[in-house]
């Protein structure tokens, strides 16, 4: 039986909004970010540097950035949450990592778990725990870097998701925190299987459902309409309203339907546009808040947090994706897409990881 996964199913590596650009405010002014004024699009390319230039010529830039950020930042040295240092990526199973976190320590979770597409197809109508292959439905397997197949018995998958969601309910701050859980309806045995089937069995409150309009899909089975949307469930630990700053977002993202196309930019097989965690983090957190992604993949949520001056923790079990994250971080520092004042706590680790 395959191990429980820490993997993000839709991990970008970059994203494009309706105008084919990553939409974000001009981060040169913190006041503009807070008020939603002077929004300017940024063409977010984040191209991977050549391996031969990853470190060469970087030390001076890193040290210069460290001096600059140390002189201007009011934040203290890197701190810990439980056993985990902030602004770091850990090779650990998602549930194992979650169980090591103390209660009410996280401000924001933006996550997209494995979808168990092949596993659903294998769980035949005779029972969700069956290993019999489904004759109709999804049989594709996403080619993850370490060869993992998303084919858990469906009931085991659902039980695992409930356990993960219940850990979110414990570790996220109860009156202010938010969880954004990206998933989709999966089709098999001539019916849709909604993530609400297990979300509503967890301890979390469904605060709102957002729709991610991808405009396209690889799920083109001829027996039903092409599915071109996914869900982003806004979940909260309690039935009180979380912090929310809608006016920080541009008008195109103030509704519950987000039209964001996907553009392949990295080797990760499943992409989440950077725009999604950027929107969720900006609209529900403050600078210095702690963002968690326990299915970190290529680190899109973590990078969005860093751009916005939030602290982050990422979990995954694939070292190749961890390396991808640090390479992307370096590229964003070199290109100026990651503001120097937000990277003070990342620099020493970056030099170590890419040495």
How does this model look, in words?
The strands form 4 sheets. This protein has a 9-stranded mixed β-sheet, with helices on one face. It contains 10 helices and 15 strands. The protein has a single domain, classed as Vaccinia Virus protein VP39 (Rossmann fold, 3-Layer(aba) Sandwich). Helix 7 crosses helix 8. The chain is an alpha/beta fold and 355 residues long.
Oligomer: single chain
Q: Briefly, what CATH class?
A: Alpha Beta
Low-confidence stretches: 1-21, 25-77, 123-145
How many domains?
Answer: 1
Strand order of the largest sheet: 1-13-11-12-8-7-14-15-6
Radius of gyration: 20 Å
- Work out the helicity level: 25-40%
Summary, kept brief:
With 355 residues, the chain is an alpha/beta fold. It has helices at residues 30-35, 58-72, 94-99, 117-122, 154-171, 196-199, 275-284, 300-307, 319-335, 347-353, and strands at residues 15-17, 22-25, 39-42, 80-81, 84-85, 88-91, 108-111, 178-183, 186-188, 191-193, 205-213, 229-236, 257-262, 290-293, 311-316. The protein has one domain (15-113, 171-353): 3-Layer(aba) Sandwich (Rossmann fold), CATH 3.40.50.150.
